[in-house]
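Sanity check

After download, print the first record. It should look like this:
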Amino acid sequence: MSEKHSFSRRDFLKTAGAAGAASVLNPFGSVVMAEEKSTQNVNVSTRPFGKTGVNVSVLSLGTMFDTGSNQLLLRQAIQKGVTYWDTADCYENGKSEEGIGKYFGKYPEDRKKVFLVSKSCDYTPDGMSKLLQRSFERMKTDYVDLYFLHGISSVKDIYEGTKEWAEKAKKDKKIRFFGFSTHKNMEDCLLDAAKLGWIDGIMMTYNYRVMDSDKMKQAVEACQKAGIGLTAMKTQGKSPGLDFLKSDPETAKKLMERLLQKGFTEHQAKIKAVWENNAYISCVCSQMPNMTILMANTAAALDKTKLSSADMNLLKAYAKETTSDYCTGCSHLCESGLDCPVPVSDVMRYLMYSRAYGDHRLAVSQFREIAPEIREQMASLNYSVIEQRCPRKMAIGQLMKEAVVELA
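Expected C-alpha cells:
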C-alpha cells in the first residue's frame, strides 16, 4: 500500500480530533472553535437584503424543530445578534411557530428586533391567506417580515394572482416582503425570478459544491441586478452518505489539519466559505436546535480569520472527489426520465436528513408524504436512463432502493 493511501479512516478521525470528528459526523458541528475567542457583548454583522432597504444578520436561526422547548436558545440568539429567524407553517407540525409565539409572548419587545420569515406550503392565494393567518396566531404577531412559498421547483409553480396577493398583503401590512425557497433547479429558479420584477427574497441551496459553477454565478448576478435578497441554506453540502469516506484520504487529512490549525471545525469553514465567496449573499440559514451549534456558528461569524486560497482549493478538491455522492437538485433532468413520478431529488434530501443530519424521524415523516403507490414502485424501477443523464453520475437506483428500506 502506498504512503498516500495508508491513511485509514481511524487515522483520519484521530487526526481530526474531537472537534474535527464531530464536525464530520454532525452536519451542524458540535463544538465551538478550538480556541474560542471572547464574544461577549459582540453581535454578528449584518448585510443589506437586496433592494429592501433592510439589513439582516449574516447568520439566520433555522428553526425546523420544537422551539417551545428551546426558549433559552431563542433568547441567546437575540443576545448574539442572530435576529433573522426562519420558520414555516409545516415545521414540527406547527410547534416551531408556536414556540416562537411563546417567546414573543414573554418578550414582546424582541419582536421588532427580529427579521421574521415564515413559509406557506400551500401555493394558492387563498391557501396562503389561511396559513398566514394561522402563522400570526401561532407566533403572536400581526405581520411577518418575509413570506416565502416553500420549496418551489420552478417559477411555474407560482400561481396566477400571487403577485397581486403579495402586493395586497404588503399594503395591509401583513408582510413586508415576498419570495420563495427552493431546493431544486436553483439556478433556473433564480434566473427566472430575476425576470419577474416583483420577488424580494429567495432562499436557496448554496454551498462550496455549487457556488462556483458558471450557471450559479450567473444566477446570483442576475438576482443582484434585480435587487433580490439571497439567503443560503444547506451550506454544508452534505450527501445521502458519509461522503468523506469516498474522498482521497490525503485530501481529507490536509483539509482537517489546516482547519484545525486555524481553530475551525469543518462545519464552520464551510459556512465561512459561503460568506467569503460572495458578499451579495445576505445570510446563511443554519438549523440550530441547541446551544452548542448556535455558539459554534456565532463564533464562526464573529471570527475575522479568512479562509486562504489554499483552504478553498482543498474544499474544491474535496467536493470534486465526492461529486458522485452529492445531489444538486437538478430534478428537471432526472425526474422527467421516469415512467413513475418519483421525486428523486426530494428522496435524496430525505436520505441526507437521516444519514448526514442524524434526523431519521424527520426523514421518515417527509418520505411518508410521498404517495403510497409511488413508494411501492420505487425499489423496482429501472433508473439506468436517468443515471446516464445525471451530471454527477450518482448511483440513483441504489440510493432509491436504500431509501425504501431505511425510510419505510
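If your output differs, re-run the checksum step. Summary of this record's structure: Strands lie at 46-48, 55-57, 59-62, 84-86, 115-120, 144-149, 175-182, 201-205, 229-233, 281-287.
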